[in-house]
Amino acid sequence: xxxxxxxxxxxxxxxxxxxxxxxxxxxxxxxxxxxxxxxxxxxxxxxxxxxxxxxxxxxxxxxxxxxxxxxxxxxxxxxxxxxxxxxxxxxxxxxxxxxxxxxxxxxxxxxxxxxxxxxxxxxxxxxxxxxxxxxxxxxxxxxxxxxxxxxxxxxxxxxxxxxxxxxxxxxxxxxxxxxxxxxxxxxxxxxxxxxxxxxxxxxxxxxxxxxxxxxxxxxxxxxxxxxxxxxxxxxxxxxxxxxxxxxxxxxxxxxxxxxxxxxxxxxxxxxxxxxxxxxxxxxxxxxxxxxxxxxxxxxxxxxxxxxxxxxxxxx
Length: 315
Description:
A hairpin with a 2-residue loop joins strand 2 (81-83) and strand 3 (86-87). With 315 residues, this protein is α+β, with helices and mostly antiparallel strands. The strands form four sheets. Strands 7, 8, 9, 10, 13, 14, 15, 16, 17 and 18 form a ten-stranded mixed beta sheet that branches. Strands 3-2-5-6 form a four-stranded antiparallel beta sheet, with no helix packed on it. It is globular, with a radius of gyration of 30 Å. The N and C termini lie far apart (100 Å). It contains six helices and 18 strands.
């Protein structure tokens, strides 16, 4: 009588049905297979991974905050930008696999949309909106927080004796969009004059006058009152040329004694932001300003007002 054979299998490992061990379940493709269980050919990107479309060179470089798109176009024309060790051309498209150099230095580029950073600064009189000044006057850039990559770009300018709202961003594409005359971002100013405009002067300023660099007009001019011989006005321009507000009033016989920008496009100077102070615009507002989708937040989150910070000149 033969002794029955006992199985050496354990209850924790049930017998398999003539299948090769360590073979993945065909009904559940892993990350290296497609929906039909096939392994894609080598060098072919899986459809699960997003494909980065090539973008125009100027747009990618501007997004890094190196400079405005206009400045980058000048660099390309001067031959200072190389793509894969070849001189770049205007309108050329690049992707993540391309090597881009500026003045011989390899750049680390970012592709795809991202939320820009925007600073709101209340500029006082006595600061220049430039990094290089032969006279050595105080610069607004000396008082901004440091960036790990790129640099702050001023959206528009204010002259040395003008105060008020000044915006900065690390995204050259946004800076170009807000400064380009085609988009007609309005600039609103509070203006103090010594004396009062008459009806004829108001009509000339709102219907149009001719300056040395072309015609100019206020799209809005409102009387704001005043004390003594001083009169305050609110004016709106659809563009921003050098000293345009001052030159327009000089053209009708008035000298501006004080000038303050109170609005740039949809951004107004916050009343609680005092002179010499800055704050960072919330990410959602910065995305709206750039025309980008607002990031969705998970779970309830109480919205906090931006922190106000006093500028401190960097040594």
